[in-house]
Write a structure and sequence with these properties.
The chain is α/β, with parallel strands linked by helices. Helix content is 57%, strand content 9%. α11 runs antiparallel to α12 and α11 packs parallel to α14. The protein is elongated and about 125 Å long. It is found in: Cytoplasm. Pfam families: HTH_18, Response_reg. Keywords: Cytoplasm, DNA-binding, Phosphoprotein, Transcription, Transcription regulation, Two-component regulatory system. Its main location: cytoplasm.
Amino acid sequence: MYNLLIADDESNIRLGIKAMIEREFPGEMNIFLAGDGLMALDIMNREQIDLLITDIKMPRMNGIELIRTLQDADEKPILIILSGYDDFEYTKAAIKCKVKDYLLKPVNRNELFQTVRSSMEDMEKTKSLVQQELEEEQLRQIQYILLNPLLSKERIKEICGESKLEAKSGHYFIAAMNQGRNLFEKAEQVLKKEILFLDQKDRTVILTEDQTVLDMLKQHIPEAEIGCSGQKTDFAEIREAYLEAAEASKYSFVHPRHSFIDYKTVTSKPAADMLPIEEIKKIKNMLGTIREQEIKSLLLKVLDHERITAYSIDYLESIHHEINRIIYEPFFERFGEESKAAFKKLSHMEDLYSFRDFYHYFHETQELILRLHEYMKQLKSISTEQTYMEQALAFIGENYQKDLNLAVVSNHISLNYSYFSHVFKENTGQNFVDYLKKVRIENSKRLLKDPDLKIFEVSDRVGYKNPKQFARVFRELEGISPKEFREAAGISAAKEQT
């Protein structure tokens, strides 16, 4: 509904325009009438007028004076001039005052309707733009409040007032979903009127006055897991509402089949009085032993779902922290970058909520701990049985001239590739490639002393099909070329035709 003011000193014209507009735009216009410019100003001081149709010649204050008076107003109506005089001076004055249109009397109804309809379209666009700018400003202010925990409630209230952030129904809720950006895009398509944004942890945050819209969201997005704050009436509590929603959303991790969790249903959960620290330490001490079943049993006890769900979510978060501190961190410190490459999951274990749910977390934790267990068993076995390394080095010594790599050698002695890589470097002080180069070049030096062998033949016999590559590696290790080595050894180069 728009507010239209018709200002004209002739009553029959005012009423005639009013009747035409009411017939053409039924129920769309709330119409006010004024007999001159001063009456029109009085009405505009009392009412928010969206569209003004004014005559030029009126007593006390004419139409041009009226619209000039309105030029400094913060919110001006759309202006349409009526005149019985086709006078260019009036037209120029109207153009200076940014008038929408200039209509001559007697009014042509089609021209009038077209102008009014065009004005309504302009008002809709303006209204939409203003609303969009307001919503964007509200969203910026909400995010500012949430990112600044030291803001006082008084200051939050001021910010909300400045951005016209208020609940028309008198109350509001905040909801949060943990499933990231993909879910945010889906929620945007379903919830058109609510304020939505992604927080720093990629949670979809929703501000709504009607909690039932969350049921609608669930109907359209069945996979959504929603945590909702308690009902709030004061926007000074918006940060508390957000923290409640974020906290409630965490519980979907341990209750993945519960699609809606209200904050008030989880606040009563007690904090655990004791963490299973001793059990976690025992697991760490058993790694690499023959007690795999005991490791599994202890892990089931540490991550007992029934016990975990009896307490607040802080209990699971603390257990997760202790598993990282007691088991993963010491392992990483001991074995360094090689363990990081061998156990890629190890670098992703810090964030509990990077897993889909508790069951996914338990499965991945158990799998990783058992892999660490096997890794350490292998290391212990190798450290006590040097025959593995002796077999590996003997195999290299016998087959260095072939196309060798770490996988071939580890398969030959029946050891895991990653384990063997670590053990090989630990025993030789070199990685496999550098060790193989050294073996080949040492053997080439012996062969180069045979004057009957050409350099390219020596290259081939030690595993280099390309003599240039052989020469490059030889120079890299010995500082001189194969030819210079022969000359230094007093071997005649007369037969060399490489």
